[in-house]
Specification:
By secondary structure, this protein is an alpha/beta fold. 26% of the residues lie in helices and 33% in strands. The chain is globular and about 65 Å long.
Length: 215
């Protein structure tokens, strides 16, 4: 079966040398791609070019991405693929930079544009603009695929993390969502249109994810 796996973080540039990103290493998505490849699936791995995980990357096709817009462009380029499964494990930046202002000692703001904003510019005020929700486009791009998203939640408890995953199912017409992070606690919750399944470790999660492809 043709599968698409996204992994790692996107980034959004402040200027030509500085960027906004997150702590995703790309490990889980990379290892999921290897697992599916070893099981005989035809896998396309889209991985953030800043991914720090250095484990072996096993997939029939491997492409890197940079910004959120670039990842979306990469996914759109695969719309021709008769994908049976799309595993969107990438940690997409929630915000990009909008306008940047310099604050003068008197408190006045002036817009700043520079290839490299110098530190002598002083205090900056940066506008953060929400990035597009890539997961919102996946059903249109891959109408026949089983689409699995991720919800990494920091605040709240396990019940709240599961509710956030359930909202993703409803809002974006995905088939399943993996809940994890400090709010969920140890392991992973695989939330489908049924009571969620708890996975103690990554190996158990991967087996359940592959089982979804066969349903």
């Amino acid at each position: 079966m043709n599968c698409v796996v996204t992994a790692g973080a996107t980034f959004e540039p402040l200027d030509q040398v500085r960027r906004l990103t997150n702590f995703s290493t790309g490990r889980l998505g990379t290892e999921l791609a290897a697992f599916l490849t070893d099981r005989g699936h035809e896998v396309t791995l889209l991985i953030g070019e800043q991914a720090t995980f250095r484990g072996e990357r096993r997939a029939q096709r491997i492409e890197t991405f940079s910004t959120t817009a670039h990842l979306l462009e990469q996914l759109r380029s695969l719309a021709w693929l008769d994908a049976g499964g799309v595993f969107h494990a990438a940690a997409v930046s929630d915000f990009s930079f909008g306008k940047i202002w310099r604050r003068s000692p008197e408190g006045n703001l002036a817009p700043v544009q520079s290839g490299k904003i110098p530190t002598r510019t002083g205090t900056l005020l940066a506008e953060l603009v929400p990035t597009p929700k890539i997961i919102a486009d996946l059903r249109g791009l891959f109408p026949k695929a089983k689409i699995i998203g991720w919800k990494y939640e920091v605040d709240g408890d396990r019940e709240q993390a599961i509710r956030a995953a359930e909202r993703q199912l409803r809002e974006y017409r995905t088939d399943a969502c993996v809940a994890n992070g400090p709010a969920y606690g140890g392991g992973f919750g695989l939330v489908v249109k049924a009571p969620p399944a708890h996975c103690n470790d990554q190996a158990a999660l991967f087996c359940l994810l592959e089982h979804l492809l066969e349903e």
